[in-house]
Design goal:
4 helices; single chain; 118 residues; mainly alpha; 75% helix; de novo design (two linked rop proteins); elongated
Length: 118
């Protein structure tokens, strides 16, 4: 039984993902601190944050909307990983590893959306 957002595996996994993103982006050029580094971190943080905010809402329809926002943030991070790789900030194997993790999170979010009846 889910009591809070902290009981959701997708929330736990997305928090771990944010930690990984911070570790990776810490190695980005310092000139990118207010550019791609900041953008990818904010998008990654948005995933578990929207799951948490949605889980506290009174109506299931609202929860679903926040899950869709989290899903959109995951797509944003995916795009930013590709850009970081093309700019030479992120090695292909690390990009692929993070994208696999992100794909898993996205599928979990989609599954949760399907279980929530409006």
């Amino acid at each position: 039984m889910v009591r809070t957002h902290k009981d959701l595996n997708v929330w736990k996994k997305s928090v771990d993902f944010v930690t990984n993103i911070y570790g990776v982006t810490d190695k980005f050029p310092k000139a990118e601190m207010f550019g791609l580094t900041s953008q990818i971190r904010r998008a990654a943080i948005s995933i578990p944050s929207n799951i948490a905010e949605g889980a506290t809402r009174k109506h299931k329809k609202e929860f679903r909307q926040f899950l869709y926002i989290a899903l959109s943030s995951a797509a944003e991070v995916d795009t930013q990983l590709i850009i970081a790789n093309k700019l030479g900030f992120l090695e292909s194997n690390k990009k692929d590893e993070l994208q696999l993790e992100l794909t898993s999170i996205s599928k979990m979010i989609q599954g949760l959306i399907k279980t929530i009846i409006t």
